[in-house]
Amino acid sequence: MQTKNQKILFEQLVQQNKGLFFKVAKMYCRNEDDRQDLLQEILIQVWQHFPKYNPQFALSTWLYRIALNVAISFHRKKVVREGNLISLNEDFYQLPSLESSEKEQQLSLLEKFIDELKELDKALILLYLEDKSQNEIADILGLSVSNVSTKVGRIKEKLRQRFSEQNF
After folding, report:
1. Does the pLDDT of residue 20 top 60, yes or no?
2. Alpha helices, DSSP H only, in the chain?
3. CA-CA 20 to 30 A from 110: which of 1, 102, 144, 166?
4. Domains of the chain: which residue ranges?
């Protein structure tokens, strides 16, 4: 059983890093219910591994590693569970309103294009957009720094091509 002190430390950790958890969940789940399920699963895994945290490693690296591993597993299970069905949510087929700015449309397209990436590529671009260094990304994802650099370049090029297809 966990001590009262561990519970307090865990609550502080969650409070201080909730943005990290929400970003990962939003990147992997568009549906609010799925996002809440994923957040719960991430927090369960962080809680279970909390006593094993090694302070010699950066806390954010450790948290990202857990959150991204849980998110990728969650996404894979969801794909298997749903088969090859593609549900069209309202955001997918709804035309952007005339009131939304070009920047908002570009942001929405970027989210859509990132959503189409493979699980590992999503994780990579999320960490890149969070201004994580290539060394940090490599540590979090268990890749070499040169592999991170190559993959980020390829993902950026793929996103550029997708935007050019949209005439932006």
Report:
1. yes
2. 4-28, 32-49, 59-82, 90-93, 102-115, 119-129, 134-141, 145-165
3. 144
4. 1-87, 88-168
Looking at the predicted structure, is the pLDDT value of residue 44 above 60? yes
Which residues are within 8 A (CB) of 58 and not within 5 positions of it... i.e. 6 or more apart? Answer: 136, 139
**Maximum C-alpha span of the chain:** 58
Determine the residue type at 26: K
Please state the rounded mean pLDDT for residues 13-23.
Answer: 94
Topology, domain 1-87: Rna Polymerase Sigma Factor; Chain: A (1.10.1740)
Structural class in CATH, domain 88-168: mainly alpha
pTM: 0.64
Average pLDDT, the chain: 84
**Nearest in space to 123 (alpha carbons), one of 67, 168, 80:** 67
